[in-house]
Amino acid sequence: MHDRQALDAIYAHVQPLLGQGRVADYIPELAHVPREQFGMAIVKLDGEVLQVGAAEQRFSIQSISKLFALVLALQSEGEALWQRVGREPSGTPFNSLVQLEAEGGKPRNPFINAGALVVTDVLCSRFATPENALVGLMRRLSGNAALDYNLKVAQSERRHSDRNAAMAHFIASFGRLANPVDRVLDAYCSQCSIEMNCVELARAALLLAQHGSVPHSGERLLTPSLAKRISALMLTCGTYDAAGDFAFRVGLPAKSGVGGGIVALIPGRCGICVWSPGLDETGNSLAGTAALEMFTTLTERSIF
Ligand SMILES: NC(=O)CC[C@H](N)C(=O)O
Hints:
Layout: H1 3-14, E1 39-44, E2 49-53, E3 59-60, H2 64-77, H3 98-102, H4 113-126, H5 130-142, H6 151-159, H7 162-173, H8 181-192, E4 195-196, H9 198-204, H10 206-209, H11 224-237, H12 243-249, E5 254-256, E6 261-266, E7 270-275, H13 286-299
Antiparallel strand pairs: 1-2, 1-7, 3-4, 5-6, 6-7
Helix pairs in contact: 1-13, 2-4, 2-5, 4-7, 4-8, 5-8, 5-9, 6-8, 7-8
The structure holds glutamine.
């Protein structure tokens, strides 16, 4: 089936799922987002955009920011970054602390919260305002110079960040943070609050679909080898403890966020983003995962 037909079929199919799942109400500002929204966009390497539903509605990218923070950290540290953070799936929820104690404060991978806090610490050492560096990258990748983070959402999360604070202090207790915990948490909450829509995020994912260069500007930001490594981590760790099931059902590298977004890509072909705020018990968009599964099934295209 062609992509356009697939999007229309998906839109019809997900309707009964849209009231289901829970929004991420542990961040009070996100508790008010209506659950039944859905949007999806595909952006091809040549710039062609296909979209359905609320694909131009901005949402809180949350953990999708971990993907692009990793891009910046790898640009600055190269392979030395792996001394600070591992690259194995955790098999535990995104906000779990349990492995840190047994593993000497080195987080399993950059896509769980513990790993993302270490990546943000790296960015705090590298940039005066890491959140602005990340917003700058997202503007370049999306082609939209107006996008920004949402201070209200950032402050709302920061005021309720006991768990991430516990994690950051615990990592620091092993001598594994270079910056003060408060500074790392401020930057982390700001980066999570960046607002983008499906079209913008699907376009941003072209960086990885095109193996490290930006199609619309021709800029090379990553070596093909680093782009490969990031995409591989998306497949194995991008949806936390659901990564195995997600690879089984969808078969694409992807990164999710508790704002309900999931960004995915088909190497050499397109970036994809789906958004629907109702989350399943692993914190991944329920309708979004179903939509991506349907997409790869109907189009018969995945990385396998
Ligand atoms: N999975 C997510 O999107 C989590 C991000 C969220 N800001 C948190 O730290 O809890």
